[in-house]
Write a structure and sequence with these properties.
The chain is mainly alpha-helical and about 90 residues long. The radius of gyration is 16 Å and the shape is globular.
Amino acid sequence: MEIKEIEKLKDVDVRTVDVSELTDIDEIEINSELSKDERCLDFARKVKNPFCFICNGMIVKISYANTEESLENKLLKLCFEMEKEQI
């Protein structure tokens, strides 16, 4: 995929996107025996647009950061920080 194509996918506006062109990620199956890089590529091929898709009936648009930390770890940190603020 060329940079122009990736930028086009990234720039999709959730307010105007054609929902029929989006993939429902609940229907995607990823082989857990693949390496991390292979799983990412497999997901990207199947989802068609890794920046905008459907999840639980909702249109989701996301961005990615180049980091080793998982989303789960980041969410845990957020929960701990929110808990500290309530004390």
